[in-house]
Amino acid sequence: MQLTEMLSLIVKGFWETLYMTLGSTIVAYALGLPLGLLLVLTDPKGLKPMPVFNRVLGIVINLLRSVPFIILLVWVMPVTRAIMGTTIGSKATLVPLFIAAAPFIARMVESSAREVNQGVIEAAQAMGASPWEILVKVILPEAKPSLIVGAAIAVTTILGYSAMAGIVGGGGLGAIAINYGYYRSNSNVMLVMVVLLVLIVQVFQEVGTRIAQRLDRRIRERD
Amino acid sequence: MATPIIELQGITKTFGTGAGAVTALKDVDLTIYEGEIFGVIGLSGAGKSTLVRCINLLEKPTAGKVIVNGQELTALSQKELREQRRSIGMIFQGFNLLMQRSVLDNVCFPLELCGVGRKEARVKAQKLLERVGLESKKDAYPAQLSGGQMQRVAIARALATDPKVLLCDEATSALDPTTTLSILDLLKELNRELNVTVVIITHEMKVVEAVCNRVAILADNKIEELGTVEEIFRQPKSLAARQLIVPGSQAPSRESFGAGRFWRLTFDGSEKTEQPLVAEMVLRTGAPVNIVFADTRALNGRIYGQMILQLPENELAVTEMGRYLTESGVSFEEVI
Ligand SMILES: Nc1ncnc2c1ncn2[C@@H]1O[C@H](COP(=O)(O)OP(=O)(O)O)[C@@H](O)[C@H]1O
Ligand SMILES: [Mg+2]
Predict the structure, then answer these.
(1) For the domain bounded by A3-222, which CATH number is listed?
(2) Which end of chain A is more exposed for a tag (fewer CB within 10 A), N or C?
């Protein structure tokens, strides 16, 4: 294969990887963020205790989280086909990625929200804040740095999943690594893919950490 | 001082159920009047926090009525309760500021909850920060402040909605003695100027001494004793009160003294430290006494506490001693 051909393949794979990772993360946050907050809110000791609902939601999330991604990928193919009309390509991969990411994100959000000082929540209650106001004006802003760090971890984890999708016909850098690097034993391609994936993970992680630190007002700035 | 502002009627609070149940308050009645600085003191675990949290219903009593400002809080819906909580400010041992908001925005927070416009809220918050002496820190974040400064911000925040009552749960317990006094002075000033009723929960007698008008002694989940600070200091009736006034003291039981007659002398602060009272008494009557127990402490050059004396056999000398003590203004009673 010619170098230019290879290059354009890699560029395409790079964009597909970004598309799959970020696309599924964003959609998964749309579900995972409210679910995570719901887990905290409906906790028996939470602001709106609903023990039975909380327990059921927790179990469902754990069930989804315990299916290995590679199995999930194959298992949900009928669903993927029903939604996307196909099971191959990067667009189709969005479906299993979303299903895997949403419960993971829900747990990340839950843990960030739980870190918020209980005393601050109590102070807001004493001031007459409603559970909704506490959620929007206290828990989310106070948990913001932790939520951003969590988002960076979520993105990098989902990036790893997206590479796995290459095995069953998903797109992106993972697919190139498997099709060229593994099936055609092109170790150079394999190396380039690994390096690229590592770089992307590093960039996401670094950017996430930096933003979180920049926004966190708990860090003492001495002037 | 005649208008009740906080009334607790038959408040019982039990945490948990069955074998693991803990009763934190047992049938507590308490009335606090408008404009008072009321202290609640007790050892750790006595139920002080539970008591104060029952006032704004952060803790829902298992039984009993809570009336604040003429409103029976225990009869309100959640929404109505939230409304009423705006007239009850609260500050905490841990300050509980929003760490991701600036000092000014922390003070704006309760105003935001009431729907006050951003501009108006900022003007009011700024004034309150000036009032607590922190206008220069308005753009700082809580993490950049000292403990005393954080508590000042918390006070400004608690006062933003012009509450009638300010609840303070161990508000100075995390502060050093000097900062504690400055915060207590501020509370005193605010009480005087804004006529806000202040309820102070503490385990330190010096806090009560410094600011409170009346004090309730909480022990074993109930109010053991209640009165003006001077009354309690002069004549602590309950063991709990004595333990708190003279920390670490516990008068031994009558049996342990053995045979003879004993008097308990109570020093209420009207005696000066430089006055060698007991020595003077012995010299005057010519009869030696045996000090079997003494637990006193000096405060601002005055004596507080108690002493138990074994009396001489000589009845005449005893009568003389009684006269001397009465003259000196020391109250005493026979230990039986
Ligand atoms: N949320 C709770 N759950 C169970 N027990 C509690 C709870 N809060 C307080 N208690 C118990 O109630 C008693 C009184 O506690 P508290 O009011 O915090 O005392 P204080 O403030 O005087 O130290 C203690 O025995 C404590 O363990
Ligand atoms: Mg306490």
Answers:
(1) 1.10.3720.10
(2) C
